[in-house]
Design brief:
Strand content: 5-15%
Number of helices: 20
Number of strands: 10
Radius of gyration: 35 Å
Helix content: 55-70%
Distance between the termini: 82 Å
Largest sheet: 5 strands, antiparallel
Strand order of the largest sheet: 1-2-3-4-5
Shape: elongated
């Protein structure tokens, strides 16, 4: 009993000290006061006083032990407690704690009360943090990596920044890179010395440029070398700022904080723009898909043909880039070619359905009509108002016009030969022939995957770029698995 009274007296003394302390606490510190009190008491009584005191110190709440608000159940035991400061509220429920943040103290209290029913119980849908969870929450600060071979320098920087940031330390450049890799995505800033053993600061910047981490993690150089050449080199290698020793603690803190905030805003802006671009691409993808399916529907074919052409084209293109440097294909074109491939037969909109869907062999005259679909499609695309500004339309034009050309020059409509045929059209030509062979048509049955590949390799279905034939051979198992999974399962069972 005496021990309990002593504990309460100690808590009362601590609370009095907190109330009289003129040093303002940030929200995390105010919450920590409540956390300490909550962990010291079973029923939350002292937690109320401490949380109230913490709230008052944090920003002019009701003040001292009167800052808390408590609720009781029928037995008289306190079930919940709320303490509000200018920037934080702490809700203590038995041994659990819930932390809320608001710009206005009234909003903080309102938020906390919204979680509580008339009976003084917390809403079961609300998440309640236990003591350990809240400690983790309070410690969830941005991380700064201090890289310096001097323990004294690291200690000074930690003293300046440790109150608001989690600190990681490295003694040299090699250890710095290892910690950045281990903490990928969790480091907000690197403070980097230049002259260090094992690997100096410039070598770290070069490594960060090589693996592109310099684009995501800002670096502030800190050095006693104030020569223009060194400072210029730091900026050229991607450093965001440069601080000379000896330094002013307030300037270091402000520069570090401003850099972290700037990069955070930049990341939000990049994400917003990326989301807008992605939304536009999705809309374009959807519209192209709808249009190409209309063409296939009119042609009496299933929408699977369009999907297959895109998959095959993408796989062949990916493999081509792996085995050859013969073609200069930008990252943008790598996305555009598979998408534009779905419009390869758009010209068939202008062909008579009776010819398109004729079940028997076409007459020479009818075949000549069918052959006009490539130019019809190209002309449709070329006449679009924004053709000159849209790479997608230009790539679709190449494919629509030349996907029936042959490597030996015996194709149509222009009789192009070899690499005079755009690589986009070459890729789709091979994809189109493969899918036509392995799909059932109104005039033919489907060939097996193996038979189709054999016919193409033997030159029975036209002449193709030898590199693309190699790509087909290399990807044939993956193609079969993706496009004909049911057929493959049947063959495996047999």
């Amino acid at each position: 009993m005496e021990e309990g009274n002593n504990a309460n007296n100690t808590n009362n003394t601590n609370n009095a000290n907190m109330s009289s302390n003129s040093t303002p606490l940030n929200p995390a510190e105010a919450a920590a006061q409540a956390l300490t009190a909550a962990s010291d008491t079973a029923d939350g009584t002292s937690a109320g006083r401490s949380a109230g005191a913490g709230g008052g110190i944090g920003g002019n709440a009701a003040g001292g032990s009167d800052g808390g608000r408590t609720g009781r159940n029928g037995s008289g035991r306190k079930k919940w407690l709320i303490s509000a400061g200018a920037a934080a509220a702490v809700v203590v429920v038995g041994g659990g704690v819930m932390l809320s943040h608001q710009a206005d103290p009234k909003d903080t209290v309102i938020d906390a009360f919204k979680s509580i029913t008339a009976e003084g119980q917390l809403n079961p849908s609300e998440e309640i943090f236990g003591t350990k969870e809240l400690e983790k929450l309070l410690q969830n600060k941005s991380q700064i990596l201090l890289v310096d071979d001097s323990a004294m320098n690291r200690m000074l920087l930690k003293e300046i920044l440790g109150g608001d940031y989690s600190i990681l330390e490295a003694e040299n450049g090699q250890e710095c890179l290892e910690k950045m890799q281990a903490e990928a995505g969790n480091i907000a800033l690197v403070l980097l010395d230049i002259n260090m053993p094992v690997m100096d600061g410039f070598e770290v910047l070069k490594a960060m440029n090589a693996n592109h981490t310099i684009e995501d993690i800002p670096v502030i150089m800190i050095s006693s070398d104030d020569s223009n050449a060194v400072i210029r080199k730091s900026y050229e290698l991607g450093a965001s700022d440069y601080v000379n020793r000896p330094f002013d603690a307030r300037i270091v803190y402000r520069r570090a904080t401003n850099t972290i905030k700037l990069y955070a805003k930049q990341r939000r802006l990049v994400k917003m723009v990326s989301d807008q671009i992605r939304a536009r691409e999705n809309n374009t993808d959807t519209l192209v898909g709808v249009l190409s399916h209309i063409v296939e529907f009119r042609n009496g074919e299933s929408g699977a043909h369009v999907r297959h052409i895109r998959i095959i084209t993408e796989m062949l293109l990916h493999r081509l880039l792996e085995i050859s440097n013969n073609y200069s294909i930008s990252a943008e074109q790598q996305d555009l070619i598979p998408l534009a491939s779905t419009l390869h037969d758009i010209g068939k909109i202008g062909i008579d359905e009776k010819i398109l869907n004729k079940p028997g062999r076409l007459t020479p005259e009818e075949f000549e009509v069918i052959k006009t679909h490539s130019m019809l499609g190209a002309e449709m695309l070329h006449k679009l108002e924004n053709f000159g500004e849209e790479p997608l339309l230009q790539t679709a034009y190449e494919i629509a016009r030349w996907h029936h050309e042959r490597w030996d020059g015996r194709g149509y409509p222009d009789g192009l030969k070899g690499d005079d045929i755009p690589i986009s059209a070459q890729l789709v030509a091979l994809a189109d022939v493969y899918d036509a062979l392995t799909s059932e048509r109104c005039y033919k049955k489907a060939f097996s995957h193996e038979k189709a590949v054999q016919m193409i390799q033997n030159g029975e279905c036209g002449a193709f770029n030898p590199l693309l034939l190699q790509c087909l051979t290399d990807t044939q198992d993956e193609l079969n698995e993706k496009l004909h999974p049911q057929m493959q399962e049947k063959q495996e069972k047999e």
